[in-house]
Amino acid sequence: MNGFVYGLVGLIAGFVIAWLLFNSKLNRKAKRRLKEAENEAETMKKDKLLEVKEKFLNKKAELEKEVAARNQKIQQNENRLKQKEMQLNQRHEELQRKINENEAIKKNLETQMTVIDEKKEELDKLQHQEREKLEVIGGLSAEEAKNRLIESLKEEANTEAAAYINDIIDDARMTANKEAKRIVIQTIQRIGTETAIENSVTVFHIENEDMKGRIIGREGRNIRALEAACGVEIVVDDTPEAIVISAFDPVRREIARLALHQLVADGRIHPARIEEVVAKVERQVEEEILETGKRTTIDLGIHGLHPELIRMIGKMKYRSSYGQNLLQHSRETANLCAVMAAELGLNPKKAKRAGLLHDIGKVPDEETEMAHAEYGMHLAEKYKEKPDICNAIGAHHDEIEMQSLIAPIVQICDAISGARPGARREIVEAYIKRLNDLEKIALSYPGVTKTYAIQAGRELRVIVGADKIDDRQTESLSAEIAQKIQNEMTYPGQVKITVIRETRAINYAR
User: Fold this and answer.
1) HSE-up of 27 (CA within 13 Å, CB side)?
2) Dihedral of alpha carbons 402, 405, 408, 414, sign
3) DSSP of 149-182, one letter per residue?
């Protein structure tokens, strides 16, 4: 029993000793690890301190650079301000110096003006004395001598002025005519447009005479329905294989012609079918009008026009002026305007636009008593065209005053397009009346004995009496006649006035 106890006590003592040894070993390891952790922490602390110190130094260096840059800018601004201050001081000194100089000049001028006034008074006295002496010597007063001198100078001045004016006019004519002809000829050469002649009737051809009876219909009902639907007059007479469509409106004639063509091709001709075909053709013609207007503006390079103006441009295709197709005339005028404006250094696009629209007043949708130029200007203003374009449209026949350089160009190009050979036809009565009016205007002047309008009214020859008008007065007479014709008459192109003064001496030998 005692052995067991001793063994148990020894076992416990051994366990205790082993635990103490193990605990001692653990303490040593813990102390060692703690020391290693402390060393590592110290190392990390030093590293962090070094890193923070490095960042601090970098930041400090950056801040020092920024401060240096700002100080440099401040220094530069200070230098500029000092330089400007020096310049201002110099200008102030210069202005002060100029003010002083001006004051001195002013004083000097006042002194000189005083001396001049004194000299002028002395000169007036001397002139008065000399005039009194001359009056005594010549036996004439100063007023009478002055009047005689003025009369003689007037005659001499009139003679010299007439010669001088003639020289200037001749020189201007040579220069202006040469330059104007060059521009006009070059413009016309660059623009070539065929002219289409329109009449007030359209001839519709048919294949046989039996078709005439079908077109007329029973008791004329078909032809009356066609005339009522189209607004034209259809003449069916003895003309072989032809029917005449008569109307002053070319659009109506075209609608009637196309409707007749479709009716004849279809073979069904009765009032209901006629109304149906005419309505269809009217829509086709309206579409053709719009397409023509759009194609015209695209061909000419004109953009931004109001759709209603484009439609009116298309309607020009079916209008004519003195036999000249209005659309062809407007296209030709637009191209002429563009070329001439470019030659003169103006805006060719505006000129072309005004040239195309100048006769827009000839295709109204409603009846109006206004002149076509004024009505065209009204339409252009209504559809927001620019003021210079509107003025050029309204002034191309001198209904209103021209306010831009485009207006005379449009007027000139309109005259060129209408006056060139073959462009227009004229009624014989109007042509003869214009020639008679030309001769009557020249005969109304005193001293004119005979007048002859020649070259289709392009030249007027005026014969004056040699005993009633001298050579100097012939120049003024031709200018007065030209001015009166220009103010009172309307004519294409220009009229040349030639005044002829002839002296004849006649004797008889017996």
Assistant:
1) 6
2) negative
3) HHHHHHHHHHHHHHHHHHHHHHHHHHHHHHHHHH
**Structural domains in the chain plus CATH codes:** 201-281 (3.30.1370.10), 291-419 (1.10.3210.10), 428-502 (3.30.70.1350)
pLDDT digits (tens, 9 = 90+) for 196-237: 344 556 777 777 777 777 777 777 787 788 888 887 777 777
Q: Which long-range contacts (CB under 8 A, 24 or more apart) does 66-73 make?
A: none
Residue 329, Cα to own-chain centre: how many angstroms? 19
Largest CA distance in the chain: 215
Q: How far apart are CA 332 and CA 418, in angstroms?
A: 10
For the entire predicted model, the pTM comes to 0.46
pLDDT in tens, 112-170: 888 888 888 888 888 777 777 766 665 556 676 667 667 767 777 767 766 666 677 67
Q: Which two tokens stand for residue 71?
A: 């100080």
Tokens representing 402? 């021209």
CA gap 200, 248 in Å, rounded: 5
| Measured distance CA(113)–CA(106) in Å, rounded | 10
* Neighbour count for residue 413 (Cβ, 10 Å): 29
Calpha distance 419→322 (Å, rounded): 11
Cα(223)–Cα(234) distance, rounded to whole angstroms? Answer: 7
Residue with tokens 């001709």: 269
**H helices present in 316-468, as ranges:** 326-343, 348-357, 372-382, 387-394, 406-419, 428-443
